[in-house]
Amino acid sequence: MYKLGINKLIDFSHVTKSYPNGDVVLDDINFSVSPGEFVIITGRSGAGKTTLGRLLIHDLSPTKGKIVIDGEDLSKIKPNNISLIRRKVGFVFQDYKIIPDKTVGENIAIALEIGGYNRKKIGEKIIRLLDMVGIPGKGDLFPGQLSGGEVQRAAIARAIACEPAILFADEPTGNLDKDTSIEIFKLLQKINDDGTTVILATHDVTLIGLNPDRNIHLEKGKIISDVDGLPAGKEGKPPIKTHFEKKHKTTSNSS
Hints:
The chain is an alpha/beta fold and 255 residues long. It has a domain at 91-163. 34% of the residues lie in helices and 24% in strands. Strands 6-7-8-3-9-10 form a 6-stranded mixed sheet, with helices on both faces. Helix 3 crosses helix 4 (119-132), helix 3 (104-114) runs parallel beside helix 5 and helix 4 (119-132) crosses helix 5 (148-159). The two termini are 23 Å apart.
């Protein structure tokens, strides 16, 4: 298992999420994330990655277990304080969730207004954000005038507008080509380098092989592995696969 730092920004303790029909989406999940980490969560569609993210922003509540964000037990948060927790977690969606009939700048401004930013300073903040994510000068354009990669950059700008401690990116490259996906990954790394804790949920093998930090792998709602990230091998194999190969090799040698 991955060795944790002293401080825990995120802590999932025996978290299970099931639905009335009996479906168990997450089953006894245990992991913690320290400030400044870059964590990739991998798994096929339906493995529980998105549900984990929704639990993180308190969009869903666990059936069992405890979730603590920055020292706050989410089960004890009063309804009128949920927005305070969500300000600590920026969320990036696969399908962007950008309002199509508002400009890029207006989309970001909404997040800043909700976050309580001074309206006089919002314009300057938007300019800085667009420059940071690599789409300077495009604040007056509508989403339909941008490429898919540019729209996702705009969505990332919106997600980090209020400077959250955590950024959860849910399959942010699912609709993008390989080269654009790598560019988005590098942008997430840049955001992480600036101090934001980043959690990337993906099944994109290309991205898995790029992460130098930590990989958590989900299968059928369970954590199968939680390991230090490893660079892709000479054959370009992703770290999770390499981890499983080592595990199976050890098992076969001991039998």
